[in-house]
């Protein structure tokens, strides 16, 4: 069979099974749902290490130890954040307003999984879907099929063992673009949960279905002059090298105040950063974006030493980051775009105004609405950036990559981070369970109102055909108005016309 046809047929079969399973799952109680979600989370957590290794082996991206942490956050971390939520039946009652809120699911959810975080995203989307009595059909990324499906198998087996109906968790074994596209438009798919590139997200929003999609994250990190530079640099380097930069909330460009630049450069070098000279920078630009029309996918999630070798550069063993000083920003400036790899441009700001300009310009070329990282001890600076930056989350004095996902902050643990209207998304939230339920409301009347009666109008004279005198008055009036000169029109003719009109009108 043709590969596209086979893939599309697999998708249709999975959607059909998911729809049947979801109709059964609709009857489950909150207690039953919670037992299933807990058991699946526990089993996923146990498999975090082995699946992390499988993901690195298959995709060639990232660091197994770091992917294990992401898998753990996306399993038990997500579970802990949603375990107490009510998602079945009556979820809230307001006795004062006499409103009862009742949750009901979307139905079948189409889930698109990225190659950068395949197993963690599979865990995360499965758990929030199960918690809300939805079924899911997953389209894995073609370069991460094996590890994504293995993660889903772990979840599926656990769900069935805990009492969930068969078919509630489905996937396309041989994903193709044709099958993914048709999945998002399938008549029995009720919601799309898309995590991936800009083109994919646009396709999700254009499908005609309700959709949660997220935009890219070209995250600036500003080291303000009052920052604890040593701590800030350590966190930035650890964050940028976490899973080799594959998380969309990872810092993408350093902006440093001139007063502390020398100290920042020294600390960057102390933490394994290699600064490229002008000639090396040119070579690296050709590796980051060979045709200046986007990111070279071959560098995504690769370690710094391997990327340096791609550019023909020899860097010291143990190099963690590649950095070049930069003062330009644009989609055709390779160092300034989102890189998803351990590579940094370093911008020097002469004052606070220039620092903000650098940050906003970086966001404007591909990261609006996503995230910004700030290292400072000045509360006024924090307030100013919070008010003025066009982003949905600002991480203060922490690792942006995992902080935005809820690992080091109080933000909701999530692998799908909304960018709001700044980024053309429907929400600015960290997507979680409550985004996957609808709420119906039962509302009692609590206010008495007096409805005014319509004013009494004079009865329309066209309705009064009981009085011949009225007809005669109308005829006389018409004759005077038209100033009849013709002998062919007389009062009897007009009278006949008036009576006819009145009769038809009635």
TrEMBL record:
Residues 9-275 form the Aldehyde dehydrogenase domain. CDD domains: ALDH_F20_ACDH (cd07122). It comes from Virgibacillus oceani. Keywords: Oxidoreductase. InterPro entries: Ald_DH/histidinol_DH (IPR016161), Ald_DH_C (IPR016163), Ald_DH_N (IPR016162), Aldehyde_DH_dom (IPR015590). This is Aldehyde dehydrogenase. One of its GO terms (molecular function) is oxidoreductase activity, acting on the aldehyde or oxo group of donors, NAD or NADP as acceptor. It comes from the Bacteria. Pfam families: Aldedh.
